[in-house]
UniProtKB/TrEMBL annotation, chain A:
<feature type="compositionally biased region" description="Basic and acidic residues">
    <location>
        <begin position="79"/>
        <end position="88"/>
    </location>
</feature>
<dbReference type="GO" id="GO:0005739">
    <property type="term" value="C:mitochondrion"/>
</dbReference>
<comment type="similarity">
    <text>Belongs to the FMC1 family.</text>
</comment>
<comment type="function">
    <text>Plays a role in the assembly/stability of the mitochondrial membrane ATP synthase (F(1)F(0) ATP synthase or Complex V).</text>
</comment>
<dbReference type="InterPro" id="IPR037667">
    <property type="entry name" value="FMC1_homologue"/>
</dbReference>
<protein>
    <recommendedName>
        <fullName>Protein FMC1 homolog</fullName>
    </recommendedName>
</protein>
<dbReference type="Pfam" id="PF13233">
    <property type="entry name" value="Complex1_LYR_2"/>
</dbReference>
<feature type="region of interest" description="Disordered">
    <location>
        <begin position="79"/>
        <end position="107"/>
    </location>
</feature>
UniProtKB/TrEMBL annotation, chain B:
<keyword id="KW-0143">Chaperone</keyword>
<comment type="subunit">
    <text>Interacts with ATP5F1B; involved in the assembly of the F1 component of the mitochondrial ATP synthase (ATPase). Interacts with FMC1.</text>
</comment>
<dbReference type="GO" id="GO:0033615">
    <property type="term" value="P:mitochondrial proton-transporting ATP synthase complex assembly"/>
</dbReference>
<dbReference type="InterPro" id="IPR042272">
    <property type="entry name" value="ATP12_ATP_synth-F1-assembly_N"/>
</dbReference>
<comment type="function">
    <text>Plays a role in the assembly of the F1 component of the mitochondrial ATP synthase (ATPase).</text>
</comment>
<keyword id="KW-0472">Membrane</keyword>
<dbReference type="InterPro" id="IPR023335">
    <property type="entry name" value="ATP12_ortho_dom_sf"/>
</dbReference>
<dbReference type="Pfam" id="PF07542">
    <property type="entry name" value="ATP12"/>
</dbReference>
<protein>
    <recommendedName>
        <fullName>ATP synthase mitochondrial F1 complex assembly factor 2</fullName>
    </recommendedName>
</protein>
Amino acid sequence: MAALGAPLRTLRALLRELRHAAGRSYRDSPAYRHVLEAFRAHRVTSEKLCRAQQELHFQAATYLCLLRSVREHEALHREYHGRGERSPQEVAGLVGFRLPQQPGGKG
Amino acid sequence: LWWAHSPPARFPRPPPADARGGPVGSCGRRAYAPPAERKRFYQNVSISQGEGGFEINLDHRKLKTPQAKLFTVPSEALAIAVATEWDSQKDTIKFYTMHLTTLCNTALDNPTQRNKTQLIRAAVKFLETDTVCYRVEEPPALAELQKNEWDPVVAWAEKRYNVTIGSSTSILGPNIPASTKETFVSHLASYNMWALQGIEFVITQLKSLILSMSLIDRHITVEKAVLLSRLEEEYQIRRWGNVEWAHDYDLCELRARTAAGTLFVHLCSESSTVKHKLLQD
């Protein structure tokens, strides 16, 4: 079984990620409610190693990884790859030139 | 003379402006790919249950796949996750971040038109070029790292599936016995078509059948599987330094796709029944 840590920690991190993803009304979102319901349903068990509980915890950890990685990937994309192409003015400016101004426009 | 034998390449026509932006069959072979970004055109995302399964509603419209089929998924949890993907889009819809939606579309449309046998064959074929079986001899630090990190996973797979896999430093790779391949073929046959699409996706991302099975059997976490898949890269990063806009970018993308694939497989192959144990006095 994978080394997952405490389920409570995973749950809190997952709910935090859902909050980032949803925005204002995150508590009413189906995902938030579903996650809480699932964790509550599997909490009460007399067995120490409940298989369903471990499966749920693994799924929650996987979903947490998905949400977190998507958010981080988007942030990196915005910072490094989101700027698009430079305009001709900017390109000329890179080497210290300026594009010529033609009175009355081109041609 | 190559130009005498092959016809000149035709540029694909720009996509027609319609709600889905999907492929048009009439203009010859076109890649199965939606446009990269679109404005968010809906306010609310909700789920409803139809005949074929769970459907996603964007305002009052029902979500469709790129091939215009109705978007239905067998699992409610999966539908909720897909709805969350759509709801978390801000001003523009970034399709490249919606991995679960993409996986569902692939499962529904099957654009490569492969049947179950072909999918399984593609998956098991990866074992011949499995990352964790390909070892280097130098630098010795990397060879040592591969031995310490990858040997346990291979050993786990051999024990769990009762097969022989081994590893190799030769360029030809390990010699996988036919019985090993057959074992994996029959194991994968127990998954349904949807789950198999997910499994094949994870294998192509991690470049390893063994790591994928280890992940799907919940033996390792997604983060660990990605780390093991990128072991040589991590070694080089530790040696030469990290480049955020390349290394972290690829790492996050790989983690996202692998996590999506794994979650997809589990949600498509589970049958959630809560068994209430009788209270014994």
